[in-house]
Amino acid sequence: AFTLKTFARLINDLGFDNVCIQDPHSDVTPALLNNCELESVKSKLSTVSNYVIGRPDTQGAHPVWVFPDAGAMRRYKPILCESRESGYHPVVTFAEKVRDYYTQKITSYKVYDADLVKGKAVIIVDDIIAHGWTMKFLVEELVRYEPTSITIYATHLENSFRTGVLYNMIKDKKIDVTIFTTNSIKRDWKEDFIKVI
Fold first, then answer.
1. Contact 84, 184 (CB under 8 A)
2. CA-atom Rg of the chain in angstroms
């Protein structure tokens, strides 16, 4: 089995002086790697926030940050709150996946304090998007509350995203979403709704 432990051993055996990780999916990852350094996403979240605040439909108002689950909120909320000394108090909420009891497939999302997003710009923050299936449910739920815009930040955007339902909905202009990601996965995509930072 190709487990995290096996992957970490392969990297460690290469003897790197430094291994830099952008936004590991698991807290165990940095513990398993030698000479590991974590790259903070703080500057990237700031870039996304500045983009959203600068949109004409936002009129300079701060966004509402939405986390797709409690784990994402635990990971990213402290980073956003580091700016409190400057007087900025982020408005945050999180969502919960709703699953079919028998199949365990995700059928929808429940957004807590969903009224916070009405008439506001929204930024969804997560570490990775694979196919975009679960994110599609979250975006559809948020649209019901009429935000002025929806922007997604995902540190890692897998190539499989291009074959997924969310990609097609955005490409076909069924929903208006901008996605920010990093260059952690090399690609030559030219879509104007995907911005690499």
1. no
2. 18
Rounded to whole angstroms, the Cα distance separating 41 from 19 reads: 16
Phi and psi angles of residue 99, each rounded to the nearest 5 degrees, phi first = -115, 150
Question: Pairing mode, if any, of strands 91-99 and 36-39?
Answer: unpaired
CA atoms within 13 A on the CB side of 23: 25
The residue written with tokens 């996605």 in the block is 179
Q: What is the DSSP string of 27-84?
A: THHHHHSTTEEEEPSHHHHHHHHHHHHTSTTTTTPPPEEEESSHHHHHHHHHHHHGGG
- Is pTM beyond 0.85 here? yes
Residues 177, 193 contacting (CB under 8 angstroms): yes
Residue 128 pairs in a beta bridge with 156
Tens-place pLDDT, residues 47-102:
999 999 998 888 778 899 999 998 899 889 988 887 655 667 789 998 999 999 89
**CA-CA distance, 48 to 30, in Å (whole number)?**
25
The CA-atom distances, in angstroms, between 97 and each of 33, 87, 129, 143 are 31, 32, 15, 16
CA of residue 164 relative to chain centroid, distance:
16
**Which of helix, strand or coil describes residue 159?**
helix
User: How many CB atoms neighbour CB 111 within 10 A?
Assistant: 20
Q: How far apart are CA 154 and CA 8, in angstroms?
A: 23
Which stretches of the chain drop beneath a pLDDT of 50? none
